[in-house]
Every structure is written in structure tokens, then in C-alpha cells.
Specification:
single chain; about 110 residues; 4 helices; flat
């Protein structure tokens, strides 16, 4: 269950990170509400995951999911750079997430 919480927390991390773009510096009310609600949900789910997962692993995976998701959506929604160096670095982050998942001992949730 901890990995499910962590994955959902990462997805909400993507939601609020991308949502920041739509707040226009927190001047638009509904996108701002979206950011704070998804941020709170993300932190709450991360806290549930850290009940059983090591904090270093949970935090690294949580931020990694956010980085990858925000990066991909930035390319799709905002036409951000898709250069090879950026894609390579994102691939390394993905490899790190997978590596941490494989290297983390099984936990009771």
C-alpha cells in the first residue's frame, strides 16, 4: 500500500507543479485553489507512504515522479525543449526511481 500511496502522491505532485503555470503568480483564484489542494493531498499521501518506506527513498521517488511528469507535460502543454540532453537526464531520473523501487526491501503496509 505504501508504494500506491507514494505513486498517487507523485501524481498529485505533477498536478500541482503544472498547475503553478496556470496560477499566473497566484493571481487566478481557481488554479491557485487547485495547486493548494493537490499540494496538500500530495504531502498527505507522502506522509502515509513514509510510515513504512525509508524517508530517503520515498522523498526521492516522490520528487522524481514530479520531475518526470512536470517535464513531460511541460514539453506537451507548453512546448518546452525536447533536446537530447534533457531527455537523457529525464531517463536517468526514471532509472533512479526504478532502481530505488527494486533496491528497497519489502515493507508491511
Amino acid at each position: 500500500m505504501a508504494w500506491i500511496h507514494l505513486t498517487l502522491a507523485g501524481l498529485l505532485e505533477i498536478a500541482w507543479a503544472v498547475g503553478l503555470k496556470y496560477t499566473n503568480g497566484f493571481t487566478r483564484p481557481w488554479p491557485t485553489v487547485w495547486v493548494f489542494v493537490t499540494m496538500a493531498g500530495s504531502i498527505w499521501l507522502l506522509s502515509l507512504a513514509t510510515r513504512t518506506l525509508p524517508i530517503g527513498t520515498a522523498y526521492a521517488v516522490w520528487t522524481g515522479i514530479g520531475v518526470l511528469g512536470a517535464g513531460i507535460l511541460g514539453m506537451v502543454l507548453f512546448n518546452e525543449s525536447r533536446d537530447a540532453a534533457r531527455l537523457l537526464c529525464m531517463g536517468l531520473i526514471l532509472a533512479g526511481i526504478v532502481g530505488l523501487r527494486l533496491a528497497t526491501p519489502k515493507v508491511d503496509s
